[in-house]
Amino acid sequence: MRTLVIVLATAGGAGYAPVAPGTVGALVALPLVPWIAALRAQSWSLATGLVLVIVVVAIWVAGRAEAIFGQVDHSRIVVDEVAGIAAAALFVPATWVAAGIVFVVFRVFDVVKPFPAGAIDRGVHGGLGVVGDDVVAGVYAGVVTRVLLEVL
What is the pTM of this model? Predict the structure, then answer.
């Protein structure tokens, strides 16, 4: 079980990147954007259910990984970026252009942590705290990307 938690928490090892592991984790998740967005176009409930499963698994894995790595929100834990990118995919079209914009906007929101992401990051412990702020950043990134694509 320990190995499975580490593989999932690090997004297949992306969390071991020596520089910007969160960015690398988000890049690993990028192919999910057009795939989930296309699924959403066919079935909103199926796509939403898939994202919820990703988020729930990410919360569980992140909580276990904190214990394994011996640190709260260890930099190797990047499954939260995967969950955030997946959440963003619910709001955008199924294109690689949308995925690229989501990636950039998500990383900005993941760093800036607009309300309530910052409050979740500071005040919620365990896997929910690790993943919750990224899901908020993902929802914001999806909505902002959708607006940008509509305006441009």
Answer: 0.95
